[in-house]
Amino acid sequence: MKILLSAYACDPDQGSEEGNGFNWLWETAALGHEVWCLTTPRGRTNLQKRLVERAHDPTAARIHPVYVTVPPGIDYLYRWQFGVYLHYIVWQRSAWLVARQLDAQVDFDLVHHVTYNSLQMASWLWRLKKPLLLGPLGGGMQAPASLRHYLPDWFKTETMRNVISKLLVTFDPNVRQSLRHAALVFAANRETAALAQELGARKVELVMSAAQPADFFPVEYPLRPALVGRELRILWLARLFPRKGLHLVLDALAKVNPRVKFHLDIMGDGPVGPLVPGWIAAAGLQDRVTWHGRVPYSTISNAYLSHDLFMLCSLRDTYASQYMESMALGLPILTLDHHGATDFIPDDAGIKVAVQSAEETTAALARAVEHLYDNPEELERLGRNSFAYASQYSWPKLVAGLHQQAAALAPEIAALTTNSLLVADC
Known about the structure:
Helix content: 40-55%
Radius of gyration: 22 Å
Strand order of the largest sheet: 3-2-1-4-5-6-7
Number of helices: 17
Shape: globular
Order of helices and strands: EHEHHEHHEEHHEHEEHEHEHEHEHEHHHH
Strand content: 15-25%
Number of strands: 13
Largest sheet: 7 strands, parallel
């Protein structure tokens, strides 16, 4: 088939949305389709380099990047957060104009929007009147008010976000129109699925939204050294955004019984970085915490492999890609039981703590750390289960599986794929 992929963020050398955009592009083409990818020039150098490196692979020849630009003034504003939103909105319109011209030449069979994965922005490409896939999408989540203490400047980061989100889904016609015209909407968590249905989506499926390259996975479960007689090594790895919940984690660890030996490694930087030393000191954890700052993406495998427990307690998250990274390397997870973590971290692959008051939530997290320290066999059991679960979600398996779902659930897509290469071995 001839597929038009909308991947505003697409860069093979980055994680998060940029990496997702590239992996959707590559794996869709690997299924045998010709894929035109609408994206920004920001990842152009790395994308072109990767395609040249893989020129021997027939998949590379089926990929046609289309770099959509915006006016220079909009590009300049991208350096500020409000400018990112504006840049994306303007880019969406520009991408639609380019897509309209492309479709007149190519006559696409299918349109798939993958990044950004925000439901509130959706896509302008419903206007092509072609079978449309959206997602996996997030955006339906809200941070719990009971934990607002852990979100600096709650009004700016959450209240205003929720207001803007409501305005977008109410007054931006593209949101409702794209959802209503989509043959199938993939939702990355139950909150987003419910919102998509409320806004008129005809068919919504709850799906995993994160994966790893096939070569990221070890051949077998990676054993850790016996825990007896040493400290529990805990990893927190993410961008230092307020919603990622580092302050909450530090407060929880401050409540762990002093007899429990542990060490937390913090890897990442970001907007709340200047606050981190104060949080560590206030928790009295100066001797038990090391903040490493930003680490190269190429080193994250070693980071996961050298720890016993991954502890990321996002206050609002579609589904952190770090969850899949950690499980792929056999690391059990300690997190909050909400949003994507509820849907796509198995109960036997970690401990998910209910969101309650700040006091109750941090206490429950502390008790979980104590339990795992006292029960190393439980720690290993959870790690083995996380490894087994993650092995289902290499990028080739995820993309092929979601395309199969689309063909099975959406009649207009099923009709297109009757004689196509949509289903490939993986």
